[in-house]
Write a structure and sequence with these properties.
Layout: E1 24-32, E2 35-36, E3 41-45, E4 51-56, E5 62-67, E6 70-78, E7 82-90, E8 94-101
Parallel strand pairs: 1-8
Antiparallel strand pairs: 1-2, 1-5, 3-4, 3-6, 6-7
Amino acid sequence: MTDGCAAPAQTASLPATVDLANEAVIQGTVVRDGAPVAGAYARLLDATGEFTGEVVTGDEGIFRFFAAPGDWTVRVLAPGGVSTDSNVVAATGEIASLEVAI
């Protein structure tokens, strides 16, 4: 449950209300030295580099976006001034999975 306009909790499993057949999901984990990184910012950028959305990783280092099918970039901004980009392709009915090592 959310309060206000905050993003839902970022957990490993999809919410039960999500019908994956009608969604394109980009999901990943941010890790440092093999351990999940909580409190990192994951930004979703479209094919032109425009900012589309942002979530904060939860305790498990998880982030998730529901996106239109196509090419996307996930930019992770983590504690310590770390920034890294990962390219991903989203497709309806699939979960595009990433592990972002920082």
